[in-house]
Amino acid sequence: MSVIVYSKPNCIQCIATKRVLDAQGTDYKNIDLSADKNALETVIQLGYREAPVVVVEDKHWSGFRPDLIKQLCAN
């Protein structure tokens, strides 16, 4: 399962998302939106304008969503 977290530095929701993923033992790739313009375009094309954006294969969401992270870790 491929998990990508698009985040920004000093973003409270981004930090919380990565902290929960780490605590659950989920491997993920973190991409800094402030350093990667292509990643920012990808997030905009998905319809999001705020970080974090989590992409899990064909599913995605924005913001700190512990409910969805828990479902992800249960699979």
Automatic annotation (TrEMBL):
<comment type="function">
    <text>Electron transport system for the ribonucleotide reductase system NrdEF.</text>
</comment>
<dbReference type="GO" id="GO:0009055">
    <property type="term" value="F:electron transfer activity"/>
</dbReference>
<keyword id="KW-1015">Disulfide bond</keyword>
<keyword id="KW-0813">Transport</keyword>
<feature type="domain" description="Glutaredoxin">
    <location>
        <begin position="3"/>
        <end position="61"/>
    </location>
</feature>
<keyword id="KW-0676">Redox-active center</keyword>
<dbReference type="InterPro" id="IPR002109">
    <property type="entry name" value="Glutaredoxin"/>
</dbReference>
<protein>
    <recommendedName>
        <fullName>Glutaredoxin-like protein NrdH</fullName>
    </recommendedName>
</protein>
<dbReference type="InterPro" id="IPR036249">
    <property type="entry name" value="Thioredoxin-like_sf"/>
</dbReference>
<dbReference type="GO" id="GO:0045454">
    <property type="term" value="P:cell redox homeostasis"/>
</dbReference>
<comment type="similarity">
    <text>Belongs to the glutaredoxin family.</text>
</comment>
<dbReference type="Pfam" id="PF00462">
    <property type="entry name" value="Glutaredoxin"/>
</dbReference>
<dbReference type="InterPro" id="IPR011909">
    <property type="entry name" value="GlrX_NrdH"/>
</dbReference>
<keyword id="KW-0249">Electron transport</keyword>
<dbReference type="InterPro" id="IPR051548">
    <property type="entry name" value="Grx-like_ET"/>
</dbReference>
